[in-house]
């Protein structure tokens, strides 16, 4: 291109100058010759600059504007400014686009840009991970070839994108994705994807919880209203009446306990209820608990106390007392008469404080352990109700432990007994300066042997629902 | 052919490809449900849904087959296009068979509900093996969408793992049956489930082989993994 341009402008120019000069010499003398030579020089000068300008115009966009002289200085300078402004403008635009892409890439949700025929034009890394796309090879691929869930296909075809849809991920078993299409520009679409596995799980738990609570309240209510009808309709003797009223009272107490536990749980969960941080000694609390345990057992079990290290604990005394109390009452309810229940406290080498309740009760089979924390989960429903369990006790224990950054540790073997322990972190435990080697009150020396071999399984963080 | 006819032909080819993948999507959904049926106890709704969807899969197979026959009759495609149409027909067949196996699995799962001793094998080992088979199918369908022979070769490799899972489930069941003859009836149901899972793995492998065939133009149905790797130019 360039040589052609050069020939096109310069060659005729030179020819013209030569012709002019020849004419001058041939015609009229030296003055005219000088004039002709000057004219030729001016023409040559302009042609050279014009040639430079043309060369610049056809070169790539970022080529330097040539420097000119004479009349061309102003024109070239203006062009130069224009080119500089243009470059700056382009840089700004590129930055805007880059920033936009960075923003889109950093979005916590997946974004896929689809063209008019639903082919993938662009996707951010999140969308690529969630939907199993790989931009490098999938650009131009119809989205429905890779996101194949029938629900999505139907959604895409309806053209009604007001709501998002929730589909099971085919890449990650068990994950749920919310997908939403958003039309933009003339005929393009954005596909937004979000992982809603946890949200869905919470929603399901809430539904289950309400269903469970209703069921738990309905059962005693049915019993009570049944008795009321009987008392209204039948003429009963005094003995029968008393018996019925006693049964009604029992059911009413069950309901009271359930409501009380629900209130405790909701208080523990409430955000407006910060943990009370106080210091208290462990030993007196354990003595109280053991007295309560003896009262609850009515002399049917042996209740032993094993306080290894005197210590002070930081935390809410009321909450911990309620959590420990729940473990103790569980132990009593699931241990047959003549069994032994041991309440223990020790400070381990790492400084963490362990409160534990050991029983010789019916125990829990290993496969039920992971589910014990769930509200209203019971291994044996009838037994739990018969002993006055609400199904919420261990949920309360779990919440208290969580609020104290403590761990609930469970070891159990069917038919041989269970150990439930709450391990408080070292920073909540302060060992007494001269703690006695062994405090009085241990009635069963064997129970001091802590890591018992019969604890077949220990699952950290799992708990027993109020009734195996 | 004129430009217009070419475009229409391309659209028709694209349409059968998308048809296969949409049918694949339904089969994948069925597999998700079957896994849930194995993991859960007693979800009649789920199993009914699997049964109802089976009919939709069969219908899709017939539709796509008809489309293929029409293209062959009307356009008389050659070379790559003909290969693609024949492959589609094969893949659709495998997908339909997977649909059948999934239905069997869901129905058999119902028969084993309520047996605590065998529940572990069902909801742990069998569900996991089915999950592996499902990821094979997903990978095979992705490979078909992308015409990606490397991914197809991976599917073919993975089939061994699904076969191994089948053998392991069988061994476990035999030991249960020897221990307690009362478990024999439900254990036999699980044997059928395991066999179906193994078949699904085989069908997924067939689909992957079809992908290699459509891209490379070579029939690799009876080739070894090594030969396939050599064919696609992988070490």
Strand content of chain A: 15-25%
The number of helical elements of chain B comes to: 7
Quaternary class: heterodimer
Structural class of chain B: mainly alpha
Describe the SSE topology.
The complex is a heterodimer of chains A (468) and B (235).
Chain A: H1 2-26, H2 29-58, H3 72-106, E1 110-114, E2 120-123, H4 125-131, H5 135-138, H6 143-146, H7 150-158, E3 165-168, E4 176-184, E5 188-195, H8 197-233, H9 238-269, E6 278-281, H10 282-297, E7 302-307, E8 311-315, H11 317-333, E9 340-347, E10 353-359, H12 381-386, H13 393-403, E11 407-413, E12 417-424, E13 429-431, E14 457-460
Parallel strand pairs in A: 7-9
Antiparallel strand pairs in A: 1-2, 1-5, 3-4, 4-5, 6-8, 8-13, 9-10, 10-12, 11-12, 11-14
Chain B: H1 3-39, H2 44-75, H3 79-112, H4 116-146, H5 149-179, H6 184-216, H7 225-231
């Amino acid at each position: 291109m360039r040589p052609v341009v050069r020939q096109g402008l310069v060659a005729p120019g030179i020819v013209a100058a030569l012709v002019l000069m020849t004419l001058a010499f041939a015609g009229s003398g030296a003055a005219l010759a000088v004039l002709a030579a000057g004219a030729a020089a001016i023409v040559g000068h302009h042609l050279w600059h014009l040639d430079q300008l043309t060369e610049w115009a056809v070169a790539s966009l970022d080529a330097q504007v040539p420097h000119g002289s004479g009349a061309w200085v102003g024109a070239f300078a203006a062009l130069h400014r224009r080119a500089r402004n243009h470059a700056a403008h382009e840089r700004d635009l590129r930055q805007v686009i880059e920033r936009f892409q960075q923003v889109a890439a950093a979005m916590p949700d997946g974004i896929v840009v689809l063209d008019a025929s639903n082919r993938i034009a662009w996707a951010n890394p999140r969308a690529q991970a969630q939907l199993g796309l790989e931009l490098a090879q999938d650009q131009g691929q119809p989205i429905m070839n890779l996101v194949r869930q029938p629900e999505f296909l139907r959604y895409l075809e309806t053209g009604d994108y007001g709501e998002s849809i929730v589909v099971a991920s085919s890449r990650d078993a068990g994950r749920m994705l919310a997908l939403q299409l958003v039309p933009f520009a003339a005929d393009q679409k954005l596909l937004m994807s979000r992982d809603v596995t946890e949200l869905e799980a919470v929603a399901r738990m809430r539904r289950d919880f309400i269903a469970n609570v209703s069921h738990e309240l309905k059962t005693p209510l049915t019993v009570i209203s049944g008795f009321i009808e009987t008392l209204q309709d039948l003429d009963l003797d005094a003995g029968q009446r008393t018996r019925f009223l006693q049964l009604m009272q029992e059911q009413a107490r069950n309901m009271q306990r359930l409501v009380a536990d629900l209130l405790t749980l909701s208080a523990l969960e409430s955000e407006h209820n910060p943990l009370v941080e106080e210091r208290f000694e462990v030993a007196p609390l354990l003595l109280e608990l053991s007295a309560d345990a003896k009262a609850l057992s009515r002399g049917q079990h042996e209740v032993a106390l094993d306080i290894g290290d005197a210590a002070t604990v930081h935390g809410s005394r009321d909450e911990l007392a309620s959590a420990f109390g729940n473990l103790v009452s569980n132990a009593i309810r699931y241990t047959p008469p003549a069994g032994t229940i041991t309440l223990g406290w020790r400070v381990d080498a790492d400084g963490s404080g362990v409160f534990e309740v050991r029983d010789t009760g019916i125990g829990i089979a290993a496969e039920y352990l992971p589910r014990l924390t769930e509200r209203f989960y019971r291994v044996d429903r009838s037994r739990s109700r018969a002993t006055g369990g609400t199904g919420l006790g261990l949920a309360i224990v779990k919440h208290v432990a969580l609020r104290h950054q403590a761990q609930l540790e469970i070891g159990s073997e069917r038919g041989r007994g269970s150990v439930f322990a709450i391990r408080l972190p070292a920073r909540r435990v302060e060992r007494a300066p001269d703690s006695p080697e062994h405090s009085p009150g241990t009635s069963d020396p064997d129970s001091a042997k802590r890591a018992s071999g019969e604890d077949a399984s220990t699952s950290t963080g799992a708990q027993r629902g109020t009734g195996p | 052919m004129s430009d217009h006819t070419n475009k229409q032909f391309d659209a028709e080819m694209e349409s059968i490809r998308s048809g296969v993948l949409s049918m694949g999507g339904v089969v994948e959904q069925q597999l998700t449900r079957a896994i849930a049926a194995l993991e859960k106890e007693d979800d009649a709704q789920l199993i009914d849904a699997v049964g109802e969807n089976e009919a939709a899969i069969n219908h899709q197979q017939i539709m796509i087959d008809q489309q293929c026959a029409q293209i062959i009759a009307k356009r008389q495609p050659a070379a790559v296009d003909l290969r693609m149409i024949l492959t589609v027909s094969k893949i659709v067949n495998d997908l339909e068979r997977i649909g059948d196996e999934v239905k069997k699995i869901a129905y058999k799962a119902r028969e084993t509900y309520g047996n605590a001793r065998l529940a572990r094998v069902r909801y742990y080992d069998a569900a996991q093996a089915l999950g592996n088979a499902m990821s094979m199918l997903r990978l095979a369908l992705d490979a078909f969408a992308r015409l990606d022979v490397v991914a197809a070769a991976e599917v073919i490799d993975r089939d061994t793992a699904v076969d191994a899972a089948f053998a392991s489930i069988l061994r476990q069941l035999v030991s249960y049956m020897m221990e307690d003859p009362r478990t024999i009836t439900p254990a036999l149901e699980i044997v059928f489930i395991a066999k179906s899972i193994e078949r699904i793995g085989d069908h997924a492998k067939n689909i992957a082989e079809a992908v290699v065939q459509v891209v490379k133009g070579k029939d690799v149905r009876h080739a070894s993994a090594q030969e396939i790797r050599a064919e696609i130019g992988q070490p």
